[in-house]
């Protein structure tokens, strides 16, 4: 498709995409302490972000009086605006108690995902099952320990219980990343598909919990956690399905999948920026 004609034929969609990119980049620069100079009582970066957000809001106006095509564009703009302006449910920087409760709330889904992993070996080719079992052998113990630590932090939110949770979530994340890389080596296509899908179910929840723990950790603590993360997100991103992850997040928080998709992308970006 010719990009020039695409922009000409779909100006609102193109404008919304550009504005989303501007706001996203501005936020990244702001988080890194880059201001590009002062603008009144704020900075040039915050001013650019505010102006872009305002224009995005204009694109996201009520589409009820417009055509179906224009309405779809406006709806997309509205969801984009919502995803940018509302705090992410799992990276909102809430209180420690709220975050701990959210982690505990993920418990049933996490345990169910681990049970699915445990039963997946039976679906694989005989030569692939041992590889998969060895790659995921620690999931049960890791999930049980994480759940116990989340409950301990919820009951007594202090530096000690937080430190234990920080260590365990990174340890679990690394186990999941190792398992993804091992599953990707399975040569049988059907076995590989089953293996990666089941591990991703755990990976999605572990990533959400990691983002939650990040949100109540200071910069030094996050840096320490990232230093313990030797297998980075970039190494396993190829084996992750953001669409499936969004469905899981949307179901957990009872929100539209479109909004969850934007949240998953933003959470991954935050983890990558932190060094995970």
Summarize this structure as a short list of keywords or feature phrases:
276 residues; mainly alpha; 2 domains; two-stranded antiparallel sheet; 14 helices; 2 strands; globular
Domain count: the total is 2
Which percent range fits the helix content?
over 70%
User: Beta-sheet strand percentage?
Assistant: under 5%
What is the rounded distance between the termini?
A: 35 Å
Give a short account of the largest sheet: 2 strands, antiparallel
Structural class: mainly alpha
Mean pLDDT score: 78
Overall spatial form = globular
Q: Could you tell me the radius of gyration in angstroms?
A: 21 Å
List the strand order in the largest sheet: 1-2
Q: What's the order of the H and E elements?
A: HHEEHHHHHHHHHHHH
By DSSP (H or I, 4+ residues per run), the number of helices equals 14
Q: Report the uncertain regions.
A: 60-87
Quick one: how many beta strands?
Answer: 2
**Quaternary structure state of the chains depicted:** single chain
């Amino acid at each position: 498709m010719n990009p020039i004609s695409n922009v000409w034929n779909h100006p609102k969609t193109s404008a919304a995409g550009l504005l989303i990119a501007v706001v996203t980049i501005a936020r990244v620069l702001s988080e890194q302490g880059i201001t590009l100079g002062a603008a009144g009582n704020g900075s040039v970066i915050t001013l650019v972000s505010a102006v872009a957000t305002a224009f995005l809001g204009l694109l996201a106006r009520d589409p009820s009086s417009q055509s179906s095509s224009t309405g779809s564009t406006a709806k997309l703009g509205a969801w984009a605006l919502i995803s940018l302006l509302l705090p992410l449910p799992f990276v909102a920087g809430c209180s420690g108690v709220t975050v701990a409760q959210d982690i505990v709330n993920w418990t049933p889904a996490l345990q169910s995902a681990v049970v699915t992993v445990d039963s997946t070996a039976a679906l694989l080719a005989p030569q692939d099952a041992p590889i998969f079992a060895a790659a995921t052998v620690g999931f049960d113990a890791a999930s049980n320990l994480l759940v116990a630590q989340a409950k301990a932090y919820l009951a007594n939110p202090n530096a000690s219980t937080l430190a234990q949770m920080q260590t365990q979530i990174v340890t679990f994340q690394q186990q999941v990343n190792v398992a993804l890389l091992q599953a990707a080596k399975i040569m049988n296509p059907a076995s590989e598909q089953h293996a990666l899908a089941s591990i991703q179910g755990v990976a999605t929840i572990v990533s959400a919990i990691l983002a939650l723990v990040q949100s109540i950790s200071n910069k030094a603590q996050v840096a320490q956690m990232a230093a313990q993360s030797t297998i980075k997100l970039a190494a396993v991103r190829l084996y992750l399905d953001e669409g499936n992850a969004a469905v899981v997040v949307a179901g957990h928080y009872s929100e539209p999948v479109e909004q969850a998709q934007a949240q998953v992308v933003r959470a991954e970006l935050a983890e990558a920026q932190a060094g995970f």
